[in-house]
Amino acid sequence: MSSRMLAIVLSTLLAITLPLVSTATQAADTATSLLKLHQLRLAAQKSLGDFYMFNGMEGDQRYSRMISESLTEVNTHLGALTEMPGEGSKALRSQLDQQWKGYQIDLNNLVNALKSQGYTDLQPVADLAARNQQLMNLSQELYSKIQQEGGYSVPALTQRSREQSLLMQGIAVDYASRSASVGATFMGGGDVRPIEELVKEFSSKMATLEQEAKNTPQLKQSWEGVATKWRYIEKSLINYNENSVPFLVNKYSNTIIQGIEQISSQYATANL
Questions:
Q1: Which ranges constitute the DSSP H helices of the chain?
Q2: How confident is the model over 174-185, as a mean pLDDT?
């Protein structure tokens, strides 16, 4: 093959390959942004639950530390969301930043009030829950917009498992608010429904995910571990008025979410 012909072949291959590499890189960047945003949503949800636990457990400092850790986690993930795929997502990212700053100030003010006077008024707590709902709604809108503008869709099982984590976190926050008797109940995303209904939904969706044909033996075992922990608190969640066990629910919900997130990561790696 002549040098000229070889050069033509190589330039043609390069012209074909570069767009493919660019597209793959963009998809990977979009997937990373969506994961960070999902983790941000979980931490933002959890920060409210941590506050309810701090309130209900009479200022137990472990929950004060958890609040700080959740706030730090949100700030870390938000700081990592620098490159947005389009103008719509950039605008929503800016709104999310402003909403978060306001929420963080309100949460810190309530924590300081609890530390200094031992109680908080109900209205500021209700306002905090409302701001958290707004954060969850806005972050969900951004999550959808990034996929739309980035030309990328989160794989089905990855998405379903992420939604299961958010549902578990929402149930835990709702339970903590009832146990703290703060006069405000909350469900991530602004979905105010009876906790019994949420528990039933979680059980049903988890059973479907457990039975998913694409699960490897390792994934099946991981789901079994999550299900075992879930069954341990399921009755307490349903019978929340009879015997409140906020510490137990908080502890197990955190480990359940960790288990689901590990499964979700495996789904994402396998592009499932």
A1: 3-56, 61-80, 87-117, 122-150, 156-180, 195-210, 217-238, 246-269
A2: 75
Whether residue 63 contacts residue 50, with contact meaning beta carbons closer than 8 Å, is answered with: yes
Q: Return phi, psi of residue 121, to 5°.
A: -75, 155
Stretch 11-27: mean pLDDT: 59
Q: What is the pLDDT of residues 48-94, one digit of tens each?
A: 999 999 998 877 889 999 999 999 999 999 999 999 999 999 999 99
Q: Which two tokens stand for residue 212?
A: 């998913």
Q: How do the domains of the chain map onto residue ranges? A: 29-269
Cβ atoms of 112 and 90 within 8 Å: the answer is no
Six-digit token pair at 32? 């990373």
pTM over 0.70: yes
> Measured between alpha carbons, how far is 213 from 93 in angstroms, rounded to an integer?
37
The residues, ordered by sequence, that sit 6+ positions from 83 with a Cβ below 8 Å of its Cβ are: 29, 33
Instruction: Assess contact for 266 and 164: CB atoms under 8 A.
Output: no
